[in-house]
Amino acid sequence: MDVEVLIVGAGPTGSMLANQLARRGMRPLIINRHSGPAQQTRAMAVQARTLEIYSKMGLNEQHTH
Ligand SMILES: Cc1cc2nc3c(=O)[nH]c(=O)nc-3n(C[C@H](O)[C@H](O)[C@H](O)COP(=O)(O)OP(=O)(O)OC[C@H]3O[C@@H](n4cnc5c(N)ncnc54)[C@H](O)[C@@H]3O)c2cc1C
């Protein structure tokens, strides 16, 4: 298999990296040693610093549906 970028780890860091690369037209391959998501929640709250980063990326805009 021929891939430009291989991301090892599909947690928040790897997932965000894959997302950002895809937004820029790249097609990264992301792999993880587990076949599915973790069974316990790890996202009860979003840290303020995370929201700042989302804001810089334009990801925290409010949408009405
Ligand atoms: C119980 C719990 C509750 C939490 N609650 C919150 C919360 O409410 N709010 C918050 O902001 N944060 C929370 N956190 C912290 C948050 O989960 C971490 O900060 C975040 O997951 C880190 O993301 P990451 O992508 O860097 O690492 P990880 O989420 O650890 O992802 C790394 C991934 O890489 C995979 N991997 C590792 N090595 C290999 C390998 N050699 N080959 C293939 N795959 C590999 C792992 O399986 C994993 O899926 C919580 C954490 C825990 C444990």
Automatic annotation (TrEMBL):
InterPro entries hit by this protein: FAD-bd, FAD/NAD-bd_sf, RIFMO-like
The UniProt record lists the keyword Flavoprotein: yes
Keywords, sorted A to Z: FAD, Flavoprotein
Stretches assigned to the FAD-binding domain: 2-62
One Gene Ontology term of the molecular function aspect: oxidoreductase activity, acting on paired donors, with incorporation or reduction of molecular oxygen, NAD(P)H as one donor, and incorporation of one atom of oxygen
UniProt cofactor(s): FAD
Membrane-spanning parts: none
Transmembrane helix in keyword set: no
PANTHER family registered for this protein in UniProt: BINDING MONOOXYGENASE, PUTATIVE (JCVI)-RELATED (PTHR43004:SF19), TRK SYSTEM POTASSIUM UPTAKE PROTEIN (PTHR43004)
Protein name stated in the entry: FAD binding domain-containing protein
Organism in which the protein naturally occurs: Nitrosomonas communis
